[in-house]
């Protein structure tokens, strides 16, 4: 493990309490609000409005939709103490436009990173993107219907990200 790796985080990046199944959101901003609220409730975000401003500012710079129906909103923020990921799986027949080239998203991962953690932020995003480009991984997330399983899938893909 290199300095700055995930080992220094005492808590997992995500957990079942940070997963929203059957998510119904009216917009990508609404989805970000629902997911950020979960982070705030667990004390992973100190100021909900401030963090959402950072997320929305990042979202205006460039679309965060990935191929395969993935939304990956993210922000480095002064209102985040430890890197965390909240996950939303949309309700059947619901999807959200995150600007993905192949259409709207049904799996949304909100990545919250401390403002000072630039390299870790990039590594987590890159590792997540690599996993999310695999159709079987995306389908596993969509079909899990279990918050614990979804959290475990996300955590396990990031365990070895810096080797």
Give the topology string: H per helix, E per strand: EHHEEEEEHHH
The average pLDDT is 90
**Termini, distance in Å?**
7 Å
Strand content: 15-25%
Radius of gyration: 14 Å
| Quaternary status | single chain
Walk me through this protein's architecture.
It is a single chain. With 163 residues, the chain is α/β, with parallel strands linked by helices. The protein has one domain (13-160): Mannitol-specific EII, Chain A, CATH 3.40.930. The chain is built from five helices and six strands, in the order E-H-H-E-E-E-E-E-H-H-H. Strands 1, 2, 3, 4, 5 and 6 form a six-stranded mixed sheet that branches. Helix 1 (28-41) packs antiparallel against helix 2 (48-61). The radius of gyration is 14 Å and the shape is globular. It starts with 18 loop residues before the first strand and ends in a 5-residue tail after the last helix.
Write a short abstract of this structure.
The chain has 163 residues and is an alpha/beta fold.
Topology of helices and strands:
Layout: E1 19-23, H1 28-41, H2 48-61, E2 65-66, E3 70-71, E4 74-77, E5 84-90, E6 107-114, H3 118-132, H4 135-143, H5 147-158
Parallel strand pairs: 1-5, 3-6, 4-6
Antiparallel strand pairs: 2-3, 5-6
Helix pairs in contact: 1-2
Give keywords.
163 residues, alpha/beta, Mannitol-specific EII, Chain A, six-stranded mixed sheet, 17% strand, disordered N terminus, PTS_EIIA_type-2_dom, PTS_SugarTrans_NitroReg, PTS system IIA component, Fru family
